[in-house]
Amino acid sequence: MLAKFGAYFLTASNFVLTDAAESIVNVLASSFAFFSIYLAALPRDENHPYGHGKVEYFSVFIEGSLIGLAAITILIKSVYSIFYPNAVHDLLTGAAIIGATGVVNGSLGYYMIAKGKTLPSITIEADGRHLVADMITSIGLVVGLLLIHFTKIIWLDSGLSILVGLYILFSAYKLVRRSVSSLMDEADFGVVTEVITVLNEKRRDAWIDIHNFRAQKYGNELHIDCHLTLPNYFDLIKVHEEVKLVDKLINSEVTKTELFIHTDPCVPQCCHYCSMPNCPIRSEPKTEDIAWTMEKIIRNKKHFE
User: Fold this and answer.
1) In 3-state terms, what secondary structure has residue 87?
2) Among 7, 28, 151, 196, which lies 20 to 30 A Cα-Cα from 91?
3) CA-CA distance, 274 to 10, in Å (whole number)?
4) Pairwise CA distance, residues 216 & 266, whole Å
5) The pTM is what?
6) How far apart (Å, rounded) are the C-alpha atoms in residues 292 and 133?
7) What domains lie within the chain, and their CATH numbers?
């Protein structure tokens, strides 16, 4: 941030000011992100039975909002400067400073994205993506400053800063959109699709159907609820074994998650798609294979309904 503001005072360029203003946001957002990660790591308690992970989404929302505010400020200043331009100077030195900050931000950003996916932490990943976006902005700045230096077209300083401001505003929208969708418990269809694929591949005969499937994230923790239909003559021990197999399969093949599986007994209407061999209560032979699809497993109905 200090380097970018140094470049701005050196060049008096609105184009450089766009990058410097966003750096203020970087510092503020990262400070809140640091605190939110500390809160998210706290263990569950009586008041927060699902943990404190959702505070990360507030962090991302604040970061996106601050970036959006910076972008709007940049756009207003740049539009004003088109009509009332000011002289710029020392552009090559400014370009060198901005280029160096871009390398630092880009390296840190890619590292944070990788760490954010590994942990996983939406806050660290979002902060990393923000820094990568900042690197892209810096590359554009360097190219733009060189262009202004060699062409001597002064209005390019404000024109290019408007383009960068619009890009920053779009980045802010994506962050806010992602945080709001998570706070509103929007379904993670990527995870659900992976789970469905694995369950179809490793499906056991006793697993007659799965329905009312819901996946919800609390920070870095994933919770899955579903109903599993099993043969109604299984005793409690056998039911528990089958539930543990589903739990183990998803945790080993897809992602670490906490499952709440409600078991349903089968009914005669299930027989036509049940694969259970030597069933002592079968009322009709199996006549249909029903693949588990997104549409089928998210409904709160057995597959014959």
Assistant:
1) coil
2) 28
3) 75
4) 27
5) 0.63
6) 39
7) 2-183 (1.20.1510.10), 189-298 (3.30.70.1350)
3-state class (DSSP) for residue 68:
helix
Look up residue 28 and give its two tokens. Answer: 């503020």
pLDDT at 263 over 90: yes
Q: How many CA atoms lie within 13 A of 17 on its CB side?
A: 20
Smallest CA-to-CA distance from 160 within 79, 94, 88 is with 79
Amino acid identity for residue 174 in this structure:
K
**Residue 209: which pLDDT band, with cuts at 50, 70 and 90?**
very high
Q: Determine the Cα–Cα distance for residues 107 and 270; give it in Å rounded to an integer.
A: 56
Query: Contact at 8 Å (CB) between 162 and 75?
Result: yes
d(CA 132, CA 128) in angstroms, rounded, equals 6
> Which string of b and e fits 188-202 if b means at least 16 CB within 10 Å?
beebbebbbeebeee
Query: Average of pLDDT values for 91-102?
Result: 92
Amino acid at 127: D
Cβ–Cβ < 8 Å for 165, 74: yes
Distance CA 281, CA 267 (A): 10
